[in-house]
Amino acid sequence: MGKRLTQIATRTGDDGTTGLGDNTRVPKDHLRVQAMGDVDELNSHIGLLLCEPVPADCREVLVEVQHQLFNLGGELSIPGYELLKGEAVLALDEALATYNAQLPKLEEFILPAGNRAASQAHVCRTVARRAERALVALGGSETLRDAPRQYLNRLSDLMFVLARVFNRMDGGDDVYWKSERMARNT
């Protein structure tokens, strides 16, 4: 494969614009650029999560997610182009079913807490939700395919489920919200 990047500091963005993959230039606060940035941030947070000791099967899923998020970012950078395939959404559905089957049913809300891996998974979940909102905003002004939005929706759900899986490593558990209802029932 040939070199894709030859220079990083081009200075072409000094005027407040950035180039898309189709060679058009848009303001850096364009909804498309905001969505691309949120997807990039999400991918970076997943990279940080992968610095933690997580089960090998979860690691494989997360590495694949990083590749799919890169595809999504590429798709966003080239209006009208398709890189994220529907199969990627199905893979998340399968992962959700697999990991959910291992977990006890939730009886109360949980806090975004626990061990470092679980807490970082919750950060990923919230950034995925923000990226999804950015895609919805972009979709309000431009026609977008459904798969990218669906992917981020499923991914945020998967990050919640993986946080629960990670909290159970080494015999841990979820961190439950101390609600008034639970206090009355104990």
Question: Which terms summarize this structure?
Answer:
mainly alpha; two-stranded antiparallel ribbon; 6 helices; PduO-typ; Cobalamin adenosyltransferase; corrinoid adenosyltransferase activity; CblAdoTrfase-like_sf; nucleotide-binding
Describe the structure.
The mean pLDDT is 90. The chain has six helices and two strands; from the N terminus they run ββαααααα. The N and C termini lie far apart (62 Å). Helices cover 58% and strands 3% of the residues. Helix 3 (86-100) packs parallel to helix 5 (146-167) and helix 4 runs antiparallel to helix 5. It is elongated. 29% of the residues are buried. Strands 1-2 form a two-stranded antiparallel sheet. The longest helix is centred in the C-terminal third of the chain and has 24 residues, at 116-139. With 186 residues, it is mostly helical. Keywords: ATP-binding, Cobalamin biosynthesis, Nucleotide-binding, Transferase. It holds the Pfam family Cob_adeno_trans. One of its GO terms (molecular function) is corrinoid adenosyltransferase activity. Residues 1-24 are annotated as: Disordered. Its EC number is 2.5.1.-.
H/E topology pattern: EEHHHHHH
Read across the widest sheet, the strand sequence of neighbours is 1-2
Average pLDDT over all residues: 90
Strand content bin: under 5%
- Describe the biggest sheet? 2 strands, antiparallel
Helical stretch tally: 6
SS elements, strand count: 2
Distance between the termini: 62 Å
Blueprint of the fold:
Layout: E1 17-19, E2 25-27, H1 31-49, H2 56-77, H3 86-100, H4 116-139, H5 146-167, H6 180-185
Antiparallel strand pairs: 1-2
Helix pairs in contact: 1-2, 1-4, 3-5, 4-5
